[in-house]
Design goal:
Elements lengths: L17 H11 L6 E5 L5 H5 L4 E5 L14 E4 L3 H7 L6 E6 L5 H13 L1 E9 L14 H10 L11 H11 L3 E6 L11 E6 L12 H7 L10 H7 L2 E2 L1 H13 L2
Parallel strand pairs: 1-2, 1-4, 2-3, 4-5, 6-8
Antiparallel strand pairs: 5-7, 6-7
Helix pairs in contact: 4-6
This protein binds S-adenosylmethionine.
The site of S-adenosylmethionine (SAM) has 18 residues, from strand 1 and helix 2.
Length: 254
């Protein structure tokens, strides 16, 4: 029997989902906010409720009905790598939400590709930058879920090792600025997301560190990531409201 897939609402509900609430607050404060790209869609809960006029989404396994898409939306049923490979160089987005495969190398490639297609004063939001437990940061989602079940501590949360990409960009990409929402929009201390923008536009294309530098981060151990005070400092963590206000103030200029 084939699974019945959900159909997206034709009109976004600005307070529809927690992740879209944060994205919509950011979009509201941007000078230009019409072109939105989401990497990793799942069932489309966020994509459905984002208020940008033009919404593009990418996922190799799309979990909703694509026959009836909301106006202005376009879906690419492929991996983020193949999407970016075929995207014309001049195609840019005001806002890019990265929520695809939660593994270090992939997250880093997604960040680099997103930067190459980010409009001036654009914003990138990266999901799942901070694991909530040792079990949520396994590189394999299947193993993470299995371990959670075996240990009787099942939450289904999987953050993978995106935090390693964060450590890399923090240390090697100084022309980027960022701040992190440490809570979800309802105020719970879970689901950290980092807002990233280009601080020094002239250096947008500069990526320090070759293969060896990157490879080392594959073995970087998360000794600090369960220490709330340390992570708050490292991730430039703030409450949802302050992080949104600060990133808008700094990225949009006067
Ligand atoms: C956490 S879900 C996305 C949730 C969605 N952004 C939301 O807010 O509701 C992660 C999605 O990433 C997709 N994914 C996995 N590997 C990917 C890849 N290489 N490129 C793009 N998407 C990928 C999965 O199929 C899955 O649907």
């Amino acid at each position: 029997m084939t699974k019945k897939l959900p159909t997206l609402s034709p009109v976004p509900n600005p307070s529809g989902g927690l992740r879209s609430q944060r994205i919509n607050s950011l979009l509201d404060g941007m000078r230009s906010s019409s072109r939105y790209l989401e990497i990793g869609l799942n069932t489309g809960i966020t994509f459905e409720n984002v208020t940008a006029k033009r919404r593009w989404g990418v996922d190799p396994v799309v979990g909703f009905n694509q026959d009836k898409l909301p106006p202005g939306s376009r879906i690419f049923e492929q991996t983020s790598d193949s999407f970016f490979l075929s995207l014309p160089a001049g195609e840019t987005f005001d806002f890019i939400y990265l929520d695809g495969l939660h593994q270090f190398e992939q997250a880093l490639r997604d960040i680099e590709n997103a930067l190459a297609h980010l409009a001036p004063r654009g914003l990138i939001l990266i999901d799942d930058v901070l694991p909530t437990s040792l079990l949520s940061c396994f590189r394999s989602q299947r193993m993470s879920n299995l371990a959670q079940k075996l240990l009787g501590d099942y939450s289904g949360r999987w953050h993978g090792d995106v935090y390693r990409a964060f450590a890399y960009l923090r240390n090697h990409l100084p022309h980027l600025a960022f701040t992190t929402c440490m809570e979800d929009p309802s105020g719970r201390p879970i689901h950290a997301q980092t807002i990233l923008w280009v601080d020094v536009p002239d250096k947008t294309g500069v990526f320090a560190g070759g293969w060896w530098t990157r490879s080392r981060y594959r073995f970087f151990l998360p000794w600090f990531i369960f220490n709330r005070n340390k992570t708050k400092d490292m991730y430039r963590g703030m409450t949802d409201h302050s992080a949104i206000a600060q990133s808008l103030l700094k990225s949009q200029g006067s």
